[in-house]
Design a protein that fits this description.
Keywords: Cell membrane, Cytoplasm, GTP-binding, Membrane, Nucleotide-binding, Ribosome biogenesis, RNA-binding, rRNA-binding
Strand content: 15-25%
Pfam families: KH_2, MMR_HSR1
Strand order of the largest sheet: 2-3-1-4-5-6
CATH topology of the largest domain: Rossmann fold
GO molecular function, one term: ribosomal small subunit binding
Largest sheet: 6 strands, mixed
Structural class: alpha/beta
Radius of gyration: 21 Å
Number of strands: 9
Helix content: 25-40%
Membrane topology: Peripheral membrane protein
Bound molecules: guanosine-5'-triphosphate
CATH architecture of the largest domain: 3-Layer(aba) Sandwich
Family: Belongs to the TRAFAC class TrmE-Era-EngA-EngB-Septin-like GTPase superfamily. Era GTPase family.
Mean pLDDT: 79
Number of domains: 2
Length: 360
Amino acid sequence: MTDVKDEAPASSGGSPGGSSSADGQQAFRSGFVALCGRPNVGKSTLLNALLGEELAVATALPQTTRERMLGIWTSPRFQAVLVDTPGIHKPKSALNKYMVEEAVRGARDVDVILMLAEVPRVPRGKDGHALIQEWEPGPGAKAAVELLAPLGKPMVLVLTKCDLLGERDWLLPIIQRWQAIHAFAGVVPVSAVQGRGLEALREEVEGALPEGPAYYADDQLSDRSMRWHASELIRAELFERLGQELPYSSAVTIREFKELRERDRIEATIHVERPSQKGIVIGAKGKSIKAISIGARKRIEQLTGRRCELFLEVRVTAKWTKDPRKLEDLGYRAAEAAPELDVQPGVLPELQSDPEGQGE
Ligand SMILES: Nc1nc2c(ncn2[C@@H]2O[C@H](COP(=O)(O)OP(=O)(O)OP(=O)(O)O)[C@@H](O)[C@H]2O)c(=O)[nH]1
């Protein structure tokens, strides 16, 4: 079985800030940090905010993160290898089972788990009065905590989207309700879109990491190739433009990625499940595919800092989300071939049935 630490290269042999404390300076720290939680709680947006780049696909649709990715966050005092995981939900298809297994695999060998949960929409009484005392974490969020707790890692609760919180003094009762279901090692309220709470989170993460040298070079931002990021950015554009129409039945593969002297040349295929979906992606007179291509190209250029030529084709790959062999063909390791979940029996079936991830 491989885990995130096995996949990391051996130490780069030093740290940007120096790992020695012999001179009285604080020792360098390094380690692995999993970002876990229900679909759509803001894991990818937070990872991008911490790293200052669009590395993880973040969209308004739940379950856009399909595979684990390592984001490498290096500061003069520490290196935190961030493991972005798919949202934890009750899986129905082979793809969804694969995604939940990816989430748990991503968290099993880290130094600290950041358990992300959105600030709640607090119910109001007939007179419009907020019923904050009656709120408690939903069954789906509780199940996610129950799934992760047996891994025995310190868990920090990160309350996301705090810009959407009605009143600041609701925070305390919200935190108390969460602490009642699990003894979190810390609680940090953040707003990734406003950049709030990130410094407090940085301190929490740094404090949780053991002393040790960096795993990756200090200018490396992710463990994935540009080829992989390119396919993710095309998928992000596709989801953002057409998400409501074909959210879970599209995938992107790269047929060719050539780094030429002046520019990158990328040929990619968008896979859908049905001919009708192919029509949606292409759009009337090719308008939709053209807009997707322009948007995706801009995202890729933003990340690489180089010019890019992007050629997209659309192909019908019937029932790919349901067939483990086809998943593998499209780059998602088949669920059957993946290691078994190391969680207590019976936990998964108790997860809330939440179609494709909405709500708690
Ligand atoms: N208002 C507000 N919205 C946010 C914040 N962070 C994320 N969002 C929005 O929440 C939605 C989901 O964000 P993602 O980062 O894709 O969430 P995720 O947990 O990675 O989602 P999955 O990969 O689908 O599990 C997007 O529409 C984001 O723009 C925040 O701090 N404030």
